[in-house]
Amino acid sequence: MLVNDAVGTARSQADIDLIRLSLEARFDELTGEYDDAVLQSQVLRLVEVGDTAGDDQADSGTKTAERDTAQSLLRTILDRRAQYEHALSRLAEGTYGWCEGCSAPIPVERLEIFPSATTCVSCKQSRERRAA
């Protein structure tokens, strides 16, 4: 069980520990992915520095696109890691599983699919409509 049930009963310490372990494991996985992506980015830069002789505009454009893709991947991983860090913080505070928008319980199914969710489906949809 990832969250309080619909009638509002509290999570057991065993449930909290299970959630914490799951969130920490995913955080650690993302940290490993980040470290790997940083290493790959550094290798890409070293290759670029040593392999620029004879580059034309297309080669330069390709290298720029590869560099941008690598940076985008790093930002995405850092963002996802921050989401899990926030989820762990909310778990410690006792607010994990409750919507930050309306304070309603976040459905268990949503948390099973997206453990770092901070909003219920309704609030998430409202935010997305406002952003569009």
TrEMBL record:
GO molecular function, one term: zinc ion binding
PROSITE patterns, per database record: ZF_DKSA_1, ZF_DKSA_2
Lineage of the species this protein comes from: Bacteria, Bacillati, Actinomycetota, Actinomycetes, Micromonosporales
Keyword annotations: Metal-binding, Zinc, Zinc-finger
Classification via InterPro entries: Znf_DskA_TraR, Znf_DskA_TraR_CS
Pfam families listed in its UniProt record: zf-dskA_traR
Acyltransferase listed as a keyword: no
Annotated ranges, domain Zinc finger DksA/TraR C4-type: 94-129
Protein name (record): TraR/DksA family transcriptional regulator
Zinc finger (dksA C4-type): 99-123
